[in-house]
Amino acid sequence: MIKLKHILNRVVISEIDMTEGDYTIGRNPGNSLQLDDSVISGEHAQIKFEPNDCIPEMFDITITDLGSTNGTYVNNEPIKEQKLKHGDSIRIGTHEFKVFDDQSHTGTQTEYYIAEDE
Question: Residue 107: pLDDT above 60?
Answer without folding.
Answer: no
